[in-house]
Amino acid sequence: MSARVHTKDSFAFRYGKVQIRARLPVGDWIVPEIWLQPKDYEYGPDYASGRIRIALARGNRQLKVGDWDIGGDTVESGILVGLGEQVQGRVVEWKIPDGEQRKFHNFTLIWTPDNLSFSVDDLEPLKLLGPDQQKLSQLLSFEEPLADTWKNGTAIAPFDQEFYISLGVSVGGVRDFPDNSTSGSYAKPWENMQFKVSSFFFW
């Protein structure tokens, strides 16, 4: 994390609508951090208590993993949940039209006791839980005993607690850029398990 501002000590909430109007950064291996993070970590440390990602768009203009385009015109929203190395995500995606990446956009989260929905600008919100899906932890296919972490929570546990807003920007990292990514004709210059390299390569 290169820079961050947050409301941890001033404002936290549970359920509601969040809309952030932002222009996401452009530049190789840059990632905006538009999160909701847990206030009290009721379900355990780090991702055991979950994180809600309101918007992510990797800064590379051209970025692919094989034929999968994950460059700056792809916006992802969703969640991260897990313990230790067993961290799983659930995301929804949108494509920003050519030439629109440098403009301001509205990124919206609708958070209810039953579901989390995301949208960009005026697009129809996309829900994480479908009508036949019972619990978020089951959707992510966590097995016992790990699934027991959230068994006493609601259908959307761990996202049934208070969260605060966190805005920032980072470079590199170990989760946001898959290994074997290529930016134009250049390969990603580190591997995600090389923590020191990903932390210091750019400085």
From TrEMBL:
<dbReference type="InterPro" id="IPR013320">
    <property type="entry name" value="ConA-like_dom_sf"/>
</dbReference>
<feature type="domain" description="GH16">
    <location>
        <begin position="1"/>
        <end position="203"/>
    </location>
</feature>
<dbReference type="InterPro" id="IPR050546">
    <property type="entry name" value="Glycosyl_Hydrlase_16"/>
</dbReference>
<dbReference type="InterPro" id="IPR000757">
    <property type="entry name" value="Beta-glucanase-like"/>
</dbReference>
<protein>
    <recommendedName>
        <fullName>GH16 domain-containing protein</fullName>
    </recommendedName>
</protein>
